[in-house]
Amino acid sequence: MHRGRILIVEDEPVALKNLEYVMKKEGYQVVATSSGSNALKLLQEQEFDVVITDLKMRRVDGLEVLQRTKALQPEAEVIMVTAYASIPSAVQSMKKGAYDYIAKPLKLEEVRRVVRSALEKVKLRRENLQLRAALEGYQGKVKFITQEPSMLRLLEVARQIAPTDCNVVLTGESGTGKELLARYIHYHSGRSQGPFLAINCGAFTEELLGNELFGHEKGAFTGATTLKQGLIESASGGTLLLDEITEMSPSMQVKLLRVIQEREILRLGGTEPVSVDVRFIAATNRDIQEAIKSGQFRQDLFFRLNVVALHIPPLAERRQDIPLLSYYFLKKYSALMNKEVAELSEEVMALLMNYDFPGNVRELENIIERGVALSNTGRVEVAHLPEDLRQLSIRTFRRKEGRIPTLEEQEMAYIRWVLKEVGGNKTMAAQALGIDRASLWRKLKKYQLEG
Ligand SMILES: Nc1ncnc2c1ncn2[C@@H]1O[C@H](COP(=O)(O)OP(=O)(O)OP(=O)(O)O)[C@@H](O)[C@H]1O
Ligand SMILES: [Mg+2]
After folding, report:
1. Is 60 exceeded by the pLDDT of residue 138?
2. Are 84 and 171 in the same domain?
3. Which protein residue has the closest C-alpha to ligand 1 atom 23?
């Protein structure tokens, strides 16, 4: 690692030269400028460890440099340089996040000392961040569990397109693993060290969503007391998952389209565009084509996002994954809860294999988590399943003298149950069963259910 990158902002030429000289002599990489507005530009383009800025400058002053540094490069530290008369405002600036201040006339030894200790702090902070990122990469090593051939192919495609930076649209019912797949793509891309952020576009009003995505400048509206970075800006260098993309309002869609095309954003109330480098992954459990046809979703935005389209089928259409996922979650939750529950009873497994999982993998995960929590036998039994699943077992999947019932026996039991549910009304029963009255009548006769 280099010894440190320093930005010096000072509009008095002599002081600027002095500072530049001392810092270079210390072996730092130095960028020096006499203009505050130029400093703001530099902060957007280059990374610095320490910023030394004069407090009182014409046009853009030191406080603004401080704020912009904190917003753009929160890991960097800022040191204020100030004339003796304005020490109170320098002290004020420390409340706003400055590391320290140095009074003029400059004592070079003091400058060296303050910069050195600021750098140490920055270095420590960066090391911590790296450590945490590495740890997350390890713990969060995204495991997308599947053994279904179609899903394995899907994962292979995901790995192939991951490093290409192209935008992706993920479709699939709720709970099928869209967010997990988005993370999977992120971790297999060159952006894995960058942030992965997600936002549910359906969970905000238009105004709030705009604020979340684009952020705002200080003073953009009453209450905007500080600059706020939006998610798109924060996700720069990484991946942003836009969940429930079809819920985005038309005007927000236009704004997003512009971001994708121009690769820059305008904060609310801002005039200077900020360049961003984000991979977008959009997800939805609705039919996007339908939303496009009805005019709810812009086709041009769809084309920009849908460079790659990946669809995750519902769990009920990939039953091979049910036992694998069940045992994966069993292991996960017994470890988390520190319990030794290592098995699912045969009957539980049979129930799970026959259940249709409207909530998909999330529902299965919840069922197993609950089962582990309730079990005190080292096994998850039917008694540890939620009521509606148990009902399913009583109604349809009880072994008869240890033998698995035949389809006809099941059908008979099911028709009997439906009849009871609708109070014996045959028209309603036929409707519920999805057959016509004549067929129902034949079946009733066959099973001698007609009294
Ligand atoms: N194949 C899988 N392997 C392991 N865990 C999975 C798998 N699929 C889904 N999960 C888990 O199931 C839960 C739901 O997944 P996720 O949040 O990714 O679904 P989603 O499609 O984004 O749902 P929604 O549409 O409701 O937002 C998560 O806890 C996720 O880790
Ligand atoms: Mg989701």
Report:
1. no
2. no
3. 175
For residues 367 and 389, the answer to whether their CB atoms sit within 8 Å is yes
Q: Give yes or no for residue 93 CB within 6 A of ligand 1.
A: no
Q: How many domains is the chain partitioned into structurally? A: 4
Measured from the CB, is residue 144 less than 6 Å from ligand 1?
yes
Same domain, 263 and 359: no
- Among all bound ligands, the one having the nearest atom to the CA of 360 is 1
Predicted TM-score (pTM) of the model is: 0.62
Domain that holds residue 368: 318-397
Tokens of 274: 């900020």
Binding site membership of 180 for ligand 1 (Cβ less than 6 Å): yes
Burial class of residue 170 (count of CB atoms within 10 Å of its CB; 0-12, 13-18, 19+): buried
- State the distance from the centre of ligand 1 to the C-alpha of 79, rounded, in angstroms: 46
Span 158-191, pLDDT tens digits: 999 999 999 999 999 999 999 999 999 999 999 9
Q: Residues 357, 427: one domain?
A: no
Distance CA 439, CA 316 (A): 28
Choice among 300-309, 342-351, 381-390, 403-412 with the minimum mean pLDDT: 403-412
Give the residues across from 343 on adjacent strands.
379
Ligand 2 midpoint to CA 165 (Å) = 21
